[in-house]
Amino acid sequence: MVQTTVVIIVFTILFSCTLAILGAKRQVANSYLLQEQYALAKNKILECRLNAAMDFLYTMDTIMLSKNNFSYDELLHFVEDKTFERAYSDGFFSTFFEAHFSLKGSCDKRLDGLPEYDGTKFYVTLNYNISNLSGLNVCGEDSFYISCSLNFRLILDELEGAREFFESQLFSKFSEKLSKENVSEIVCEVTGLVKSLFNCDTIIENISVNENFVEAHYKLAYPTVYVSMFEEGVSNNIIVYYERPLRLEIS
Amino acid sequence: MFKLIDKAFSLIIVAVIVSSCLNNLYSLNVREYGEGYYSRLVCCQLLEKMLKEYGVIRLFHEAERGTLGPLLQHFLQENGVYEYTIIVVEFESEKITVGAGRLSGTPVKLVLFMGDRRMVLNIWFTK
After folding, report:
1. pLDDT, tens digit, for every residue of A112-125?
2. For chain A, which residues make up each domain, given as ranges?
3. Phi and psi of B118, rounded to 5°?
4. How many CB atoms within 10 Å of residue A150?
5. pLDDT at B35
6. Residue A251: pLDDT above 70?
7. Do A97 and A141 form a contact (C-beta atoms < 8 A)?
8. What is the Cα–Cα distance from A23 to B22, expressed in whole angstroms?
9. Across the interface, which of A10, A50, A114 has its CB nearest the CB of B8?
């Protein structure tokens, strides 16, 4: 009886050892699987970042190459917050992302895989959902910045500065010495200053001068070159303009 | 007494044989998992490096010009993995295959978009 018990104990110990070894190996295999899933998910997140940035920049590129004249408001609309989303699959992974692009942000993480430009920086908040046939489901948020080839902020600031300068100069000069004879002289002087200070051309239409007020319709045009980010060697000479009727009360 | 020794030895032998068989079977499996993980990790690293070095836009341009094959071949040779890596690029209706080695298992895929154009990079590392 004792002998049989000893044999059973020995056998049980051996069997337990085998199970313990198998358990340890199973854990090693699971850790490999987990690390593999992590590496693949990381790869897919990079893919999401790139595709989101490409969608935004490609849309912008297409618009900027489509015509030569852009109004101040159109350019302002470009730099407003925008959201892009896309859902796709590679046969194993299903990916969905929603990316929010804004001028406001403080993230200093650049996106590798796209060129760096001197133009405006857009801050991106990316929400992604990645799942695969193995049951992996990764949701998360990421943020980074991308740059584009045109400096939207500079153009808008130049036009805004030119507008303020032009109107205030015109007002002060007309207030000082207004007569029908020197209107063109004053206009020439102010438009020359606008050109040299803000690199803007000024076009004045329908100017009418009365004793108490001056009415004019003016247009400020900022010429620049847009260099395509996607079409090699392609650029577009564009003019960003600001126009409005102006009425200056001079009494 | 001899009966007991016989019994004990036969049980021990059976246990040792069973455990070594199971362990060997599982160790083979673990090795496979390890190799699979390693090869996928290398694939991910290669894709990341490729994107950093060339950028997405250049990959599309080279594919449009029909010169993506030589570029990827240069990339694999430069990184010393040409013999063990296979890259298959699906771009529009074309399939560009670069590299050498035994094609097995599932590839690591990268799907990229440029407007309405789609490019899928499939990569296998087989060392």
Report:
1. 899 899 999 999 99
2. 37-66+80-149, 153-249
3. -125, 135
4. 24
5. 86
6. no
7. no
8. 11
9. A10
CA atoms of A142 and A136, how far apart (whole Å): 19
Amino acid identity for residue A74 in this structure: E
Residues of B whose CB is below 8 A from A112 = 48, 51-52
- Which among B46, B90, B108, B120 is the top mutation candidate for probing chain A, defined by the most A β-carbons within 10 Å of its own β-carbon? B108
Cα gap B92→A218, rounded to integer Å:
50
* SS3 per residue for A1-15: CHHHHHHHHHHHHHH
Task: Give B63→chain A minimum CA distance, Å.
Answer: 13
The tokens of B105 are what?
């298992």
Q: Which residue does chain A place closest to B30, by CA atoms?
A: A29
* Residue located via tokens 């939207």: A152
Tell me how close the Cα of A22 comes to any Cα of chain B, in angstroms: 6
Q: ipTM > 0.95?
A: no
Interface test mutation site (partner B, options A30, A32, A45, A57, max chain B beta carbons within 10 A) = A32
| Tokens of residue A109, six digits | 């993480």
The per-residue pLDDT for range A191-219, each reduced to its tens digit, is 999 999 998 999 988 888 777 788 889 99
Helix (H, G, I), strand (E, B) or coil at A135: coil
Asked if A43 lies within 8 A of B47 by C-beta distance, the reply is yes
For residue B114, the enclosing domain spans 2-125
Distance from chain centroid for Cα A75: 13
Specify the number of domains making up chain B: 1
- Cβ distance A58 to B19 less than 8 Å, yes or no, reads no
- How far apart CA A53 and CA A93 sit, in angstroms, is 20
Instruction: Work out the pLDDT band at B98, boundaries 50, 70, 90.
Output: very high
